[in-house]
Amino acid sequence: MAQKRASISDIAKELNLAVSTVSRALSGHSRISEATRKRVWKLAEQLNYQPNHLAAALRKGRSNTLGVIVPHIDGHFFSQVMKGAEAVANRAGFNVLLCQSNEDYGQEQKNVDTMINAQVDGIMVSVARTTHDYKHFDKIKKRDIPLVFFDRILDSPEVNAVELDDFQGGYQSTKHLLEQGCRRIAHFGGPQHLNIYINRFGGYRQALQEYGIPIEEELVLFSEMWEADGRAGMEQLLALPRPPEAVFSASDFSIVGAMRVLKERKLRIPEDIALSGFSNESFTSLTEPNLTSVDQCCEEMGLAAMRLLLEMVQEHEQAPRKIVIQPRLIKRESSLWHQQP
Amino acid sequence: MAQKRASISDIAKELNLAVSTVSRALSGHSRISEATRKRVWKLAEQLNYQPNHLAAALRKGRSNTLGVIVPHIDGHFFSQVMKGAEAVANRAGFNVLLCQSNEDYGQEQKNVDTMINAQVDGIMVSVARTTHDYKHFDKIKKRDIPLVFFDRILDSPEVNAVELDDFQGGYQSTKHLLEQGCRRIAHFGGPQHLNIYINRFGGYRQALQEYGIPIEEELVLFSEMWEADGRAGMEQLLALPRPPEAVFSASDFSIVGAMRVLKERKLRIPEDIALSGFSNESFTSLTEPNLTSVDQCCEEMGLAAMRLLLEMVQEHEQAPRKIVIQPRLIKRESSLWHQQP
DNA sequence: CTGAAAGCGCTAACAG
DNA sequence: CTGTTAGCGCTTTCAG
User: How far apart are the first and last CA of chain B?
Assistant: First the structure.
């Protein structure tokens, strides 16, 4: 029982008008008499007319769709970002096309093609961990499709980006541990080809330096930062002749692993070893003790990135901009010496 | 420096062929000589030709895009579902358009219009909590756009749906508690106009009945199931003259709230009160003790729903189908009397 | 203020 | 095997 969609030409015929007139009436053009405008709208309503965006898009060369490429959608950060981004896009009358790279470079290249084929008017992207070169983004640039990087960015002055001040996050977190009296502070770091992990590590070093404490290599451990990595890392630290008094981790997952190990060994948190993570994952307030972490203001990031993208889509040609979002240190039990229950 | 997209007609001109020939060569039509096919592909490659899907869609009346409407994308369940759904869709050459209703009925209605305007070839939807009537879905039916409900479904025999066997989930969970020796078992239930919560509650009752245990009204508490609701619920239960020996909650969030209260009161889990939740949220394996929960096989659900949708899109007119996914009870410390560390 | 006509890029008859 | 042609539904000159 397919019901044929009413089209502009249907309305035109019915009303003895030219399609162009109907089109203008519908799109709120100025040079249209109030009378015809009303007649058109009324019939459109009656026929439950829905504009065929595809046709309009083809004609105008713009699809009214914006693409978002993320490494994955499961997990706290990216889903929150999406929430913000989608809200902004929809309010501005744009649809959102979603692609996940699954942290895979090859898939990310395909995603870019998908976006181009879908004729999106702009693209928001956070690169996969395995992405080492950026040729596929050149295609986008060549076609003059507005492009905004967020969080995991391609660092280059010509690029539009929204990023978190990861350096500040690392700095504040480490400084907080120092203020709690810790001096030997370890760091769990992530892949060092990604800006975010480089910067978190940088903040850590800066804080230590300000306190005149040298970096000890044996206290800095890099990994993929899963829970298992955190477990292994903690075991390694505890095996040292002089274990650290605290750990600043660039991920909440690995700090949970560390926490597990400490509990198994009946070590107290934070009295024996204080812990602080990164991302303010939802579980950080559910563990025992609660985990101190750095909030990335995910939704704000999504809002900002999408707003920037929309501006680029709507007003042509702008000088590249970078927006930096400030993180917030959330102090919880795992790092607070004097506020244990 | 916008680079003009190469089109089929560009290729045709360059090669002195008709557009139709080029189109056929490109789409792997059979009646095309190997020679021309090669020439066409080669030039297409050179010009970095990308098909204009919009034009094809307009012509064919199919957009190659599938829509997904979910209540929200942040959180475990829906993001996992999306992961599965997107994987299937992309593999079949379809794009995915995402809309969130934010658990709001009005927004859900708008989402439906968005999908229709975007000319999606099919729609997958899980309804918002506040959705009480289903008129907006009639629009979709009227247009003969394939529609699949998942998880939170509109229960009607004419509808295509993928759902979890929530009844089984509730039944197994409760039976497990019974097998652990608990007899007075409380239930935290969700809004009773949603099929999922009705069924989880139903499974609970069935299990009790099989053990010849009557339902006690004071042990059954309905709420929105947030953590705070769980706290309040637990307080209420503990204030009873004879508190229960276990709680089966239809949500992991409220069971965490309950856990908090028990710990504050220095009650032991599971010795004093055993706990079991629902959804197998990622934090359930991070709490102490770990939380027993029911895994919803989210990704599988996304896969199944999208596969069903694709079948409907590709082969026309089928009898409505319902697919039921079996949940898995994940037994953890919070309910296991003899396996405490 | 309204109409006629062209065309966005592609596909699918229908001819050869 | 290839070419010619029409048209998907809409917007946008260009003419009145």
Answer: 66
Report the pLDDT averaged over residues A113-127: 89
User: Which one of B118, B143, B288 has the shortest CB-CB distance to A95?
Assistant: B118
Please count the residue pairs, one from chain A and one from chain B, whose beta carbons lie less than 8 angstroms apart: 126
DSSP string, B123-192: EEE---TT----HHHHHHHHTT--EEEESS----TT-EEEEE-HHHHHHHHHHHHHHTT--SEEEEE--T
User: Which positions on strand C lie below 7 Å from a protein C-beta?
Assistant: 1-13
> How many domains does chain B divide into?
3
In the block, residue with structure tokens 């995402």: B98
Q: Which window residues (20-49, chain A) lie with Cβ within 7 Å of strand D?
A: 20, 23-24, 26-27
Same-domain status, A234 and A148? no
Q: How far is A278 from A253, CA to CA, in rounded Å?
A: 9
Look at phi and psi of residue A49 and say left if phi exceeds 0, alpha if psi is from -120 to 50, else beta: beta
Task: Categorise residue B51: left if φ over 0, alpha if ψ from -120 to 50, beta otherwise.
Answer: beta
Same domain, B14 and B129: no
pLDDT single digits (tens) B259-300 = 999 999 999 999 999 999 999 988 888 888 889 999 999 999
pTM, full prediction? 0.84
* Same-domain pairing of B221 and B247: yes
Helix, coil or strand: residue B248: strand
Contact A75, A82 (CB under 8 A): no
Question: Residue A19 burial by CB count (10 A; 0-12/13-18/19+): exposed, middle or buried?
Answer: middle
Kindly report, residue by residue over B195-206, the tens digit of the pLDDT: 899 999 999 999
Q: Is A12 within 8 Å of A36 (Cβ atoms)?
A: no
* H/E element, A216: none
